[in-house]
From TrEMBL:
It comes from the Bacteria. This is TetR family transcriptional regulator. The keyword 4Fe-4S does not apply. PROSITE patterns: HTH_TETR_2. Keywords: DNA-binding. Residues 29-48 bind DNA. It comes from Sinorhizobium chiapasense. Pfam families: TetR_N (PF00440). Residues 6-66 form the HTH tetR-type domain.
Amino acid sequence: MPRPKTLPDENVLDMALAIMRKDGPDALTFAALSAGCGLSASTLVQRFEGKARLVQAALMQAWDRLDRLTLELAKSTPKTPEGAVALLVGLSGDYGGIESYADDLMILREDLRDPDLRARGTHWRNVLSEAIEARFSGVPAAPAGIGLMMASQWQGALLWWSFDPRMPVQDYVRQSLDRFVASFVHASPITVE
């Protein structure tokens, strides 16, 4: 079967990310990508210059998708504390099972090594925190900075789930975030006598 002459970058980068998820970032080579997408290794080198640029492009595309999903969930969830939980549970659905989550942590290493990718992570943190914050605008008991606090609680819940993944990740996240929100939204005021 002849090799394809063209393939959109989006498809090539999807294949690159699939290789990194399956076998780790070190397994992504132009030869492996060529075998996966059908383009010649020399064509891929011409497009992406080197492995570092290829990894960065694949991860930037992944960040773009996460940005889009975050904005979709921000538009479709109510501006209530329950909506904040739903937004984060919706973001948790993309992790899949424990193996997928563990593989994604290897990829996170690449994000942390690259200043441009770290900047994308910072941008997403800010967008996510603002979206969560907007869901608490009418809650008088909500502490200042609730958006980043709840995003941090969510990330912690994902990590703790990964050590004991007996229930679906979305269920674990929902339980954890419901308890977090209840600790201040439904708490009785403390009185000092």
